[in-house]
């Protein structure tokens, strides 16, 4: 079940919110936990018991870790917790990948392949793992005490608004909101408004662009000309942004409606003037997690040699690429971004800073767009061929596509880059402002209702409604 489905919008969400808001405070968390388990069970019933069992075991491991005064024992318990959670991720997400590559090597050596039954990927396993890791590490570092109740820990890990695709919520940032939180009418209005904005991004921009992107990116290279190839990857570039940013908006809005304040996940990433800045603006909760829990522990930028710095950057982005999916294309995508981060440390960042704002934004956007080819196409050979097609410079007329697509592409471009201009920043503040008057609240309610109704109508009228990050 995804947030942009009719089942969720017209059945699950209204029933959940009605019951949740009517309940006494002491029953809200138990009900939210039951709803979250039901939500996950609907999409992956065969995995829910495994996740529940591992989560319960992890709760008691971390609780023992916190209460122990023996540092060696604390380290052992932390290692057990990390091993268990990373082990689940490795098995479910990467077992098929490693066996397939191992068998490929065996075939090259004329050795019989290893028999293997493919493992099905549980939805949201990557985000589940990040939640469990940050809990154990934050408690180990004594940045926050562990939760006292098992139900509260299950709620932190399995809460349906952000479990499937983030944003990644660090334990220390939300720990105090889990047992008790204040819910105001303003939060409910703002949360629903934010949810509807995200839904509209998903339905009216990402879905429209996604149909063309899917058609061109999956087409045989011989059937694509230079212009079609660029239209396809540009459509995907904006599709993935509005798809994932829209989902993050919906998750943040849902959380706000029930009293949680989730961290922001996007900040106009295509306005970035270099790749370093891009990763400070794109999927910010993932970037921040990788920085604080992987890059800095490796030594970060405070290392004695450039070689070690470049190793740290490369390693973190290779892991980031592999985290997104068990495919060599994701590894290449991570390596590609890691390479440009290294080049920025050497000379590229200085060059971009001196080139002026518009040029540096254009160059950075161009680099990101090329990278999306490897992210969007499963086959390495096909991805490389697609990139080469982008540089044939055999110009052709624009493909014959519906006016709705061209209008949406222009709208997506405008919305993505409006933050560059000063009036664009003012407009964004107006759209996302929190402290507003009663008159503004009434306008916000009306706008939310319109966006919701039109979005539901659009979803009901089309069979194309994918969610890119659902598979991660």
Largest sheet: none
Number of strands: 0
**Rg (C-alpha, Å):** 23 Å
Portion in strands: under 5%
Low-confidence stretches: none
Indicate the mean pLDDT. 90
How many domains comprise the coordinates?
Answer: 2
The secondary-structure element order is HHHHHHHHHHHHHHHHHHH
Helix content: over 70%
**What's the number of helices?**
19
Q: Output the structural class.
A: mainly alpha
Shape: globular
Distance between the termini: 15 Å
Question: What would you say this structure looks like, in words?
Answer:
This protein has 19 helices and no strands. With 472 residues, it is mostly helical. The protein has 2 domains: 6-180, no CATH class; 186-471, no CATH class. Helix 2 crosses helix 6, helix 10 packs across helix 17 (403-417) and helix 13 packs across helix 14. The two termini are 15 Å apart. The model has no long low-confidence stretch (mean pLDDT 90).
